[in-house]
């Protein structure tokens, strides 16, 4: 059976037969296993359209069998890069270049994915390359990539030893190895997600990764961190909308219909309108959340996808379904998917094109080549896979250090002597072989999309959409979350009413009492408003982790979240604060002519102190740390409050603290203004007794300074602290 010209040149041999019959005579030798799948197509009668390498593996077979060194191996001849896919001139209606929305036929295109997934078997030619829709044209090459961690003794602990490799477009790659082998570390380095220093070189299409690399790639993390009250469908649509620009003619209904079809492909159609859920919000299962993360990553229309343990927590059947969907995207759209996967069962393993197998302590390459040739490689190494034994289980049993059957040292030596020279020459040939640039890949995609509607020009930015759209999408989602959090809204209202009734009951009819008692009432009112914003801190801290993860995936700028969260929560909090003031004022029986003054100054102190709480929530690691960090700010504001400690009683060396306290200035200006409005003799005595002075400019300046400085601190902390570290 010849290799299919549509699937990137998979070797003409059934992977299921290879896995069940090790050491077949027709199987290739160890020299082949290090070549990318597309480079093996020359064995078949049909040449692959998507292949960029056409080296004959039989020459390498002969060299390796005869014990030839790498210097005697023939160089891999470069060929011209694959040209960008063109749209057929016969297409006059809306179509698509990827699993991404465009025009009225988007539903048909994504629907074809659901139909084609039934044809995915892992056999050569099971999925045909779609010449009209395929858009992938990015190859990934890495050389001597390694990672070490410093120890307490001053030396370093090697997590990942230097490794090299090359993946052609249209390849589904499995990174496998025992725990501690560094497969997730390697995945993070290749995806440019590693925040710690590492060594080595990673190129895409023969060039170093630039600022556009995040636009062309998608990363599916292992942790499923999402907002609990977002539905499955909304979560996928949110990622799609922020990762892809689409023609203006594409409606929200079109995107929604297409998302439903995507969810059907990963088995989430039945729960598309269910909440993600959490410990306190009932939602979908953990395995379904894992598939939602996978669907979000795969719906972005990227050139290269990086998936960290995409099948963790899934049943065997669900895992196979997800990997079949990944293989379909690879072959149909010519994209590359690299997945770190622990130990897949045989039915899942055969769906992968390429296997990069690592041993542990440190992580070193044991095998780097086509999955279909792995059993033959083990046979050549002297350890054929026994009958009725899962090949992947057998591989890991032999390469895991410290086990009874471990042969890790033998396989490391065998790899260095036979396969590594081939990889070195292949990587040297591909590392600097320039193909399409990142900007050209984006321009190619836009050029096709422009046939179906007006689109903005491609910008050299890490974000796929403009800030206005980012803000719109994030704001709408935050508003939706706020409306759905009925318990939270009800709690805020109930707390405001309860506070109002409690304080009002303590000072009921205070308007008919002496001025000194009224001053105590104003003091309690200001203090309660100043402290009421604390209840927002736990919510801000809990949402921060989701925001940080999404910002690390360059879905949106963190400014979009800061503006949305601050605006919506500020409005709700101010309304609840106004409700509290209204209830207390009604029960106090004070004159209505001073209500505006009371509401104005209590709202001002609330806004100023709310900025402090948001700063602490942004800076603190968790709620416990936030309480500790908040103490000094509260002491300054609450102790030097203008009533228990006033200008008349404060020591001279602590006058500065009174001048810096927003509570002191608020109380002083409010009482002074009320006295002027009512011309109360009793309040005039209080003003003289406490040394109150009219200093409106100083009061506005202090309140404004607290608001501005702590808001700036909040923004700096949100941007610079608690980032996702890998």
From TrEMBL:
Q: Which domain of life is it from?
A: Eukaryota
SUPFAM superfamilies noted in UniProt: P-loop containing nucleoside triphosphate hydrolases
Q: GO CC terms for this protein?
A: membrane
Membrane spanning segments where? 489-510, 516-538, 559-588, 594-616, 628-650, 696-718
- Nucleotide-binding recorded as keyword: yes
Give the bilayer topology.
Answer: Multi-pass membrane protein
GO molecular-function terms, A-Z: ABC-type transporter activity; ATP binding; ATP hydrolysis activity
Alphabetized Gene3D superfamilies for the sequence: P-loop containing nucleotide triphosphate hydrolases
Q: Which PANTHER family match?
A: ABC TRANSPORTER G FAMILY MEMBER 28, PROTEIN SCARLET
Protein's name according to its UniProt entry: ABC transporter domain-containing protein
